[in-house]
């Protein structure tokens, strides 16, 4: 016989399972939250800007390379080699700079995810208390469970209510 206290009845009424173990899909939690959608949109927009910048630089470098190739027959070998080496160095510097920008975008996305989970923690802790759970496990790491233990949808709605997209509070805003 299982005795349910007042908290258990309340938890069941609002769709929160009464269970010792809850599960959550953190990837979906982040991706489907207002915070995660805002972050993804910002990263996507910045990635598009970077891609456009890369295409423009590629076109400029291609034009410069063709010009250098066209001038080669009229140049002394040593003079051409100096220009070719300078061009190669320029290409490498640009490539390193653009790669650094791409890495910074990835790091921004990773940092936003960490900030999101930090901001979501109080909401998840409240869900644990309300359900009487002692632990929340990553759903993808669980071999078998009842769908009733998954609180991802409820967590998303509560986190959205608590922190929204994070923009107003500056959580995970453009760094």
Describe this structure in words.
This is OmpH family outer membrane protein. Keywords: Coiled coil. GO terms for molecular function: unfolded protein binding. By secondary structure, the protein is mostly helical. The chain has one domain (7-163). The protein has helices at residues 6-13, 26-32, 34-71, 77-131, 152-163; strands at 21-24, 135-138. Helix 2 crosses helix 3 (34-71) and helix 4 packs across helix 5 (152-163). The N and C termini lie far apart (54 Å). Mean pLDDT is 88; it is low at 1-13.
Considering DSSP H and I runs of 4 or more, what fraction of the residues is helical?
55-70%
| Order of helix and strand elements from N to C terminus | HEHHHEH
Distance between the termini: 54 Å
List the strand order in the largest sheet. 1-2
Helices, by number, come to 5
Low-confidence stretches: 1-13
User: How is the biggest beta sheet arranged?
Assistant: 2 strands, parallel
Count structural domains: 1
What is the overall shape? rod-shaped
Mean pLDDT: 88
Keywords: Coiled coil
Protein name: OmpH family outer membrane protein
Coiled coil: 40-115
GO molecular function, one term: unfolded protein binding
Summarize this structure briefly.
It comes from Antarcticimicrobium luteum. Keywords: Coiled coil. The chain has 175 residues and is mainly alpha-helical.
């Amino acid at each position: 016989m299982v005795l349910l206290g007042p908290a258990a009845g309340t938890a069941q009424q609002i769709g929160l399972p009464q269970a010792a173990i809850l599960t959550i899909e953190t990837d979906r939690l982040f991706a489907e939250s207002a915070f995660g959608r805002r972050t993804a949109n910002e990263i996507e927009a910045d990635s598009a800007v970077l891609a456009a910048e890369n295409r423009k630089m590629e076109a400029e470098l291609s034009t410069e390379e063709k010009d250098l190739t066209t001038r080669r027959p009229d140049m002394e070998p040593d003079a051409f080699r100096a220009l070719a080496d300078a061009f190669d160095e320029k290409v490498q510097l640009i490539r390193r700079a653009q790669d650094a920008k791409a890495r910074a975008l990835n790091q921004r996305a990773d940092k936003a995810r960490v900030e999101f989970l930090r901001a979501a923690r109080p909401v998840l802790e409240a869900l644990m208390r309300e359900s009487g759970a002692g632990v929340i496990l990553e759903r993808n790491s669980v071999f078998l469970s009842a769908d009733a233990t998954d609180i991802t949808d409820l967590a998303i709605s509560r986190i959205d209510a608590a922190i929204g997209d994070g923009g107003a509070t500056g959580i995970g805003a453009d760094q």
